[in-house]
Amino acid sequence: IDDVAYLAELDSVLTAYKAEITKLILGNPSGAAAYYAVFQKVDGYLIFDPYNKQDYAMFGAVATSWDRYYPGTPRSKHLYDFTMNALKTRKQQEQQAALLENVPVVSGLSLPDIVLTEVNGEKITLSSQKGKVVVLDFTVYKSDFSPAHNMELNKIYSQHKAKGLEIYQISFDSDEHFWKNAASNLPWITVRDPQNVYSRLLSTYNVRDIPTAFVINRDGDVVARVENYATLPGEVGKVL
User: Fold this and answer.
1) Residues 164-220: pLDDT tens digits?
2) C-alpha span between 144 and 135 (Å, rounded)
3) DSSP-based helix, strand, coil % in the chain, nearest 5
4) At residue 226, what are phi and psi to the nearest 5 degrees?
5) What single DSSP character describes residue 132?
6) CATH for 105-239?
7) pLDDT tens digits along 26-60
8) Where are the domains of the chain?
9) 149 vs 102, 133, 229, CA distance in Å?
């Protein structure tokens, strides 16, 4: 099973599981079971995402109840602080996502910087490519679409590299060894997010489908969001 299929299967299972656990939490939000339920993890990541508006409601319900029935206790204070910090972060992410949603019609939008490690272990920042036209590509190598996807990118890269085009490709593969083998022969910048499909980058950049790309001009501003890759050559051509 490739990582894209794994993500879809995991999402389906967790959605069903969370629906059942939500009943438990809302049935008795002041109970110990509710407290532990909101902090359950899979692969080291919280099942209930405190930065997701719907999931955040579970943290809010438990935090409110614990603050009422157990005021001043360490767990109540921890839960309150955690919930308020998550709310602040979510609001910031929602503002950024709202901007990125309008990327096709908004020019001059600066993207959040990215610092990730490439195959040889060197950290590469997205901002270090300022001065070039950059295709910021979100992908998974261990997927059915990947070979054809990278071949199409290579056509664009080969055609425009001399004009100042760079590709900053982020892999969300869970298998690091597979990524290294696949990425080692690619001519552009290939980095990997070790958080794979749980990465905050996907929500920060409002990426709902993989692959998705952004075209960034020489000033470091996004000029296009690309989900239909047939339009990518044209979008790149506009800024070269």
Assistant:
1) 999 999 999 888 888 988 898 899 999 999 988 778 888 788 887 889 999 999 988
2) 21
3) 55, 20, 30
4) -125, 115
5) B
6) 3.40.30.10
7) 899 999 999 999 999 887 778 888 877 788 889 88
8) 3-100, 105-239
9) 25, 19, 9
